[in-house]
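Entry for the shared binder. Reason: the reviewer on the internal report wants the predicted structure included alongside the sequence.
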Amino acid sequence: MAGFAQVALRIIAVIPILVLVALLVMDRRPIAELLVFDFLVLVLMGAIVGADLADPAVPHTPTVLL
């Protein structure tokens, strides 16, 4: 149960930051109008956050400071 609580707290801490950064990168454009670089940045951020949420051994601070 402690592992679930740790993952839940990580989700609560990281997802709002990821959504905010994604909105700043997308700048009110639909996904179809994104440049390739912007799309790759969003995919990379998703991979970093996914690694942080999936593995408790990964340090949490570098992900939050992303």
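Summary line for the report: The chain has three helices and no strands.
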